């Protein structure tokens, strides 16, 4: 795999690479039990961002945002959080820096459930101010569960088996499966979301069975996500990185 991280490249390499798209990983710094690092969400976002940048073919991965909107996890020491408005503004600032250099194509990749609302707000504001279309990826666990149903039992838990699998695959030295304590899975069948402190739901700070995670499952999740998302990203690029009638087949002439 070629080097696609902006911070690892020189200006000469970037000029010769003809890159026209930026991928921004957005993670979090928060407790993931005794068995996974505080950087779990950031490591995951970076891993997915690199795979999607490879699928695009002309994309560079920007330095990850290590802080997310983690106010609902502040019950656990050393969890750090942006306010939603702060995360929104950080994404806007990064995007407006890109626009200064003529980079108008941005994909955000979030691996933390607290981030999407702030990212969406930034995307809508950037479109209003500059006409910039921001593509956004999130929900990696749910997508993995759907794509790998019948092969793996992917959970949606915080610091459970799927997050253990991802870290075992991407950063195995940071995973401590020998310290994992299994707990019941968090319920994920509620018809609506209920907002409040996450510690009310999972008092230990994690749920699920991290002892069952595997590097093999982590690799399978990344492969499945890339195979699912990659073709759409290439189609988006072919259509000028903007939403339009190519997404619906409905034109102004369709009404007759």
Question: Key terms for this structure?
Answer:
alpha/beta; globular; 7% strand; 256 residues; four-stranded parallel sheet; 4 strands
The rough form would be described as globular
Give the helices and strands as they follow along the chain: HEHEHEHEHHH
Strand order of the largest sheet: 2-1-3-4
Terminal CA distance reads 49 Å
Strand content: 5-15%
Structural class: alpha/beta
Proportion of residues in helical segments: 25-40%
Spans of at least 5 consecutive residues with low confidence: none
Largest sheet: 4 strands, parallel
User: What is the averaged pLDDT score?
Assistant: 96
* CA radius of gyration: 19 Å
**Number of helical stretches of at least 4 residues:** 7
Q: How many β-strand stretches?
A: 4
Could you explain how this protein is built, in words?
It is a single chain. The chain is of the alpha/beta class. It has seven helices and four strands. Strand 3, helix 4 and strand 4 form a beta-alpha-beta unit.
